[in-house]
User: Fold this.
Amino acid sequence: MKTKAVKNKVPVKNIKGKKNKQAQSNLQHYLKITAIILFLFLLDRITKILILKNAITFDGSFLSFVFVKNTGASFGVLKNFNVVLIVVALLVIALFMFYRKAIPFLPFTLILAGALGNVIDRIFFGYVVDFIDFKFWPVFNVADSCISIGIVMWIILLLKR
Assistant:
């Protein structure tokens, strides 16, 4: 008896091809997220280093760059609770990583970059380096801006659903 050879390998190739394309797409997505987070993190670090070394000085009527040691959270809440703020920040970062697929790309990236920038300050200095002073608003930094913009974007996206 002759048996007929089955040459039905096309579906297997298609499935593998789809998986490879999906894996490549995922890799590109994570590389993009990593690149943006790294850029924002480095921008935050560089500006803080320049402020700490007095390399940036500006004192205008509307905007100033002034070094402020922030031992609290936003708007001065929880002053001198550095350990608590570090633990909370690390928990937020861990939760963001766990739920990363549920959070839109840009808000996720901005909030994570800002959280990393400020938690590094808290761990190594015991405070967050703030320096952007609009005179009518609490002093803040690049990381704070990332977090605030990311949260506002996320809320807008949630409201649009």
Remarks:
- DSSP finds four helices and three strands in the chain.
- Residues 9-13 have pLDDT under 50 and may be disordered.
- Residues 10-160 form one domain.
- The chain has one domain: 10-160.
